[in-house]
Amino acid sequence: MMDPTEKNWIEKYFELRSEFDFCSNLSSDLPFEQKLYKYLQPSGIIYGHPIDLPKEIVIDTTEWPVKERLQVILLESLLATYLLKNNIKGGIEDLNNAVSEIESFYTKTKPELTKRSFFESKTRSKLFVLEKVFSKRVNVKAEWNTNFWQGFFHNILLFSDVIAFIEHLNKPELSSTDLVGYLKNMHVQIIHLLSINLNINKDTKEVNVKYFHYFVESTILNKEDKKEASNWHKESYESKFQYNYNKTSWLKRKYLLDLVALSVWADQSVSFLEKEMMADLAQRLELDEVELDESGFAVESFVLCKWNKVHYLQKKQSYLVLSKRITKRLQNIIQKYSGFIKTEIAENNELIELLKISQERSLSIEEKDKVRIQLVDILKFVPTFAMLAMPMPLLTIPILLKILPKEMFPSSFNPNALTIPRNRKRNSIVEG
Questions:
Q1: Does the CA dihedral 138-139-144-145 come out positive or negative?
Q2: Could you give the CA distance from residue 148 to residue 144 in angstroms, rounded to a whole number?
Q3: Is the pLDDT of residue 267 over 90?
């Protein structure tokens, strides 16, 4: 049993983790950065709220203290970055090699975290050093989970470590000054983009300015730069798009878009100006309309799937409103691939046979579940869904029949046969 509050927790984590072939469930067709995004997105680390380890690592974290859980998820994010980039499974030797790179990265970017204290042994192990690094790097305050903006800002920059770590792996010759400069530039870009949304969202601006200042203080900018950045929300948002966002990696651009999507989502309603700003930002990031939809879908599906674990999300958003919104977003995404999906349904013999049977009699629970699984499997080939971990709890048959237009099914198909049994009683598994 692993206890992350005890010493040598990383060594124990390595023993458990080495048993999992986490690469086997990730599509080999995706480029490295997109594969990493798909793996880490459900954990919540991209949104500054790491809740669970990726599902490929079957370790129960529910009883762990918040700080220790965040430490383990950050460690896993950096390990996965190293392993996926080098296309290796993750045995004990691989994990130890990853540790060397992670220590090197933090020695360059945050040397105060790896510095040996006067009382420490000169022969301290790398795992011991890394445990100290994560203990200092992750900071949790008692009130962090009670307000959207405060929780959002509290650990949102953890994922910037992951992106800078990729830069370190790509260019190991980079000096400490260069790598810190890369991180600072990323933090400045994030502040600028968040200040845009804060500026145009007049109704909640006054309340959230103090949390924006809190976020600025959490960056690695120097004192003078922080003072200047704290006033950026006072400027008109049109002046903010001044960076060449496209001259960087896909993952960094996607990270920036996701953060703005989350901040736009926070107050439940999305104004015309916010929609316009998001479309403009996506264009400047050289991310197309589908990727813009992906960011909204990723944020909302994460929130719905983790609803009971995030107190401030429960307070700021109605589950019913969000369910309706994500259904609408799914419909928009599906419509773009309607021809492909219709063809896939027509060519799936088992699915077609079950649909025919459903017109003659009520399907059993097992048969209905087969229909659901077959439809979900087809959706997995849609680029948007291939990119993200599928929110399986959300994709019940009623939801699938809402987002998949009737014309995608055989002409004689009656969708009511799947959702309303002939005895008119609700089926809790199917209609959930």
A1: positive
A2: 9
A3: no
Token duo for residue 174: 């980079």
pLDDT confidence of residue 430: 33
pLDDT at 197 over 80: no
Chain Cα centroid distance, residue 237: 26
Token pair belonging to 396 = 């019940």
Residue 139 has pLDDT above 60, yes or no: yes
Instruction: Tell me the CB-side half-sphere exposure of residue 383, using CA atoms within 13 A.
Output: 14
* Single-letter amino acid code for the residue at 242: Q
CA of 267: how far to CAs of 66, 140, 174, 194, 324, in Å? 25, 24, 41, 14, 16
Contact (Cβ atoms closer than 8 angstroms) between residue 14 and residue 92: yes
- What Å distances lie between residue 211 and 71, 87, 214, 233, 380, CA to CA? 23, 40, 5, 12, 38
Residue with tokens 């896939």: 344
pTM score of the predicted model: 0.80
Q: Which of 61-70, 265-274, 341-350 has the lowest mean pLDDT?
A: 265-274
Distance from chain centroid for Cα 26: 15
Contact 400, 335 (CB under 8 A): no
Q: Is the pLDDT of residue 423 over 90?
A: no
Sign of CA dihedral 379, 340, 280, 241: positive
For the chain, give the number of residues. Answer: 432
Percent helix, percent strand, percent coil in the chain, to nearest 5:
65, 0, 35
Question: Each residue of 82-116: pLDDT tens digit?
Answer: 999 998 888 899 999 999 999 999 999 999 888 87
Which 3 state secondary structure label does DSSP give 387? helix
Could you tell me which of 388, 383, 208, 196 has the C-alpha nearest to residue 296? Answer: 388
> How many DSSP H helices and E strands does the chain contain?
23, 0
